[in-house]
Structures are given as structure tokens and as C-alpha cells.
Amino acid sequence: MAVKMIDVKGDILSANDMLAEGLRSRFEQAKVFVMNIMSSPGAGKTSVILRIIEALADRVRIGVIEGDIASDVDARKIEAAKVDVVQINTAGACHLDANMILGATNALGLDGKGLLIIENVGNLVCPAEFKLGEHVKVMILSVAEGHDKPLKYPLMFTESDALLVNKVDLLPYTDFDMDELRKTVIAMNPKIRIFPVSAKTGEGMDRFVGWLEQNIQGR
Amino acid sequence: MAVKMIDVKGDILSANDMLAEGLRSRFEQAKVFVMNIMSSPGAGKTSVILRIIEALADRVRIGVIEGDIASDVDARKIEAAKVDVVQINTAGACHLDANMILGATNALGLDGKGLLIIENVGNLVCPAEFKLGEHVKVMILSVAEGHDKPLKYPLMFTESDALLVNKVDLLPYTDFDMDELRKTVIAMNPKIRIFPVSAKTGEGMDRFVGWLEQNIQGR
């Protein structure tokens, strides 16, 4: 008789996927569109979220779930923009999982919300493996990180529906090659939408917000 | 009788620590000083390593182990600097562990080397949990990532012996507050050495290389 092997990582991922499917049904019932935002630390997730709030808050009721290993630095920024926010502290875990989102949506409440934004833990690797019941995955790459990142961290680039290339205001001071980046990313994921933006100056944010709004309405 | 719980994560970490101790003895016997470099993706690990090679390669024989999820982009840059290098592809894993380093040192060879540099996977979270038998842990934070990172990703800042604050050439174009960063980091880890540098222009690298050379000689 062959020995049965227990694949611990595989089991964790499939339990997470099942829970994520349940979350997705709950989001559908509540008519909430859910976006999962992922990036390296410091690529600009919170700044992008603040720009989305600025552009959409008068038309769509927004809720935000903030994922961090420690601290409530980001949640306090969102709260200052007068949007409902729940902070998850993962106590060391390097990504959010569906179980954490279940707890956070219970605390936040979905009633009447049109858009739920989930800010994942800053990490270009692990968050891409965990479904959270989201409708779209959006990732951010800062031009300060360099255009070679898709080759070195492929999963998030292949899993995402949209890529924001943030901090284009720093382009003149870096050797970031936007054409090279586009070529690499599109070869890996032909359907991905790429938006060069600066959350700092607001440049390019209108195109991304337009895409997001189309997705919310088309749901 | 109480149920015995199996702590899978705890077991993985303690097996890793034991293997890391074995590696450390092997490094001591071979008289190789070992530095583990960690940071977010794109903070400048490879560029810093190239500066170290430029400064030290005529006095110390150097070997490099490159850790990436995929690709050999970084290893080819090190090879071009005429230094022995081994590339580890982790096939999805978000950090290096002691077992990977055991395989890589066998492939690289330690004989005659004075300094072994291990470039970890770009990730501000998980690599901090895994000992690799190193003598010093060095982390890099790019000024483009922002000065609030220690609060959000505390473990790496408390585990590291030195912090390189890289890309200071971008300081005029960001709102990075160096004094605030120093204050936060030193409160978490009073013994850490902080070096503002630009691997691009070379600024500040002499002080860091001086510290590293003292550590190599003082071993």
C-alpha cells in the first residue's frame, strides 16, 4: 500500500479557496464590488486608495479593509478621509487570507456599500497565492523598484487584472524603462491593463478610476 | 489525557535553526564571514553587492549566493563582476532557508573565500524569520518606500545588525524623513547601525564598507 502524503501547503490553499468562494457569494448578495490591492511595501497602496476615495466617494459608498503585520498607520489615514475602515493586524503573517476577510467584513458591515477595497500586506510574493473573494486583483509597482521585477516575482503579475505603475513623477531620476516593463508584463499576462500613475501628483489616476468604475457598473 | 498539538510552523523554524547552526560551524571552519542581505523587491540589494565587490574584491575573495523566486537576472550581473556566484530559484518560496544555503554552498565552494554574501528573496517579511548561519544580517530600505516602514514590518528591523537607507539621491523628490526613521528604528533596535547610502552614486558606501571590513577582520 502506498503511503498517503499530506500536502500541508496544498490543504491550506484549498481550504482558503473554498472560504473565498463563500465570501464571493456574500459580496454578490450584498451587491458590493471588491478589489484586492497588492504590492511591495511602500509602492503606494494607501496613497492610491486615498485617490480612489477622493474620486469616487461622492458617487459610491466605500469601505476599506487594511491589512498590516503591525500598526494602524494606514487605517488612521483612511479614517481621516471619512470612510469606514477596519484594520487587520496579521501578527507576523505575510499576507491576508479569506478567514481574516470574513472577520473583517463582519466588523465593517457590507450594507449599502458599493465598493470594498482590501489593502493587502506589503509583499510582492505571498499575497498573490491567497484568494479573498475579490472581483479584481490590482497590483502596484513603483518605478523606484525597477522594471525587472516581473521576471523575478512572476505570480502576482500573472494573477492581476490591472497593474498601476506608480511614482511616475520619479521617472526622470531613475533608469526605469516603461516600454521594457510593458513588453515583459504583457508577454506574461496579455489581458492585464497597465496604468502609469502618480498617486502623489494625481497624474493618470483618472484613467484607472474610469476603468474601476466601469468594472463596478458592469458587475 | 490532553491532545498533543503539532505546531507545523514552529517545527519548520526549529529544524531550520538547527541546520543554520550546522552551517555556521562550517563557515567558521572555512574562515568565511557570511552576510545575509534582505529588503523589499527593488530596494537595491544587487546594486549594493556590486558596490561591495568594487570596494573589497582586491583584498577579500568574495562569493555570492543569489536567491530569487525565478530568473537569473541578478546572478548574471554578479558574474559580470567576475565573482563566483550561485543562483537559487525558490520556485515560489518567499524566503531562503538553511537547507537551500547548504545546497548552494556545496555548489559554490568555500575554500579560500573571505566573504560570502547571501542575497535573500525580495520580501520585507518572511526572510527575517529564517536563520541561514550568517554572522550579520543587513537590511536595505529605499527612501522611495517611506519612513513609516519599521512600524509596519517590525521584525526585520529588530533582527538586523545594520540598515542601509538606500537611494538617498531621490531624497529631494520624496517626503522621506531621515530623522523620524532613525528615531523609530533605534527605539526598536538600539544596537542597529544605520547607513544612508546611494548605491547608484556611491554616496555613503565607504562608511558601510568600512563597518563590514571591521566585522570581517574582528571575527
Question: What's the structural domain tally of chain A?
Answer: 1
The assembly state of the depicted protein chains is homodimer
> What overall form of chain A do the CA principal axes indicate?
globular
Overall pLDDT score of chain A: 95
Q: What is the CATH class designation of chain A?
A: Alpha Beta
Looking at the overall shape, the CATH architecture of chain A is 3-Layer(aba) Sandwich
Spatial sequence of strands, sheet with the most strands of chain A: 3-2-4-1-5-6-7
Biggest pleated sheet of chain A: 7 strands, parallel
Relative strand content of chain A: 15-25%
Give the CATH superfamily of chain A. P-loop containing nucleotide triphosphate hydrolases
- Strand runs of chain A, count: 7
Computed Rg of chain A: 17 Å
Helix-strand makeup class of chain A: alpha/beta
Descriptive notes:
2 copies of one chain form a homodimer. The first copy, chain A, has a single domain, classed as 3-Layer(aba) Sandwich (Rossmann fold). In chain A, helix 7 links the parallel strand 6 (162-166) and strand 7 (193-196). Chain A is built from 8 helices and 7 strands, in the order H-E-H-E-H-E-H-E-E-H-H-E-H-E-H. In chain A, helix 1 packs parallel to helix 4 (98-108) and helix 2 packs across helix 8 (205-218). The first copy, chain A, has 219 residues and is an alpha/beta fold. At the A-B interface, helix 5 of A face helix 5 of B.
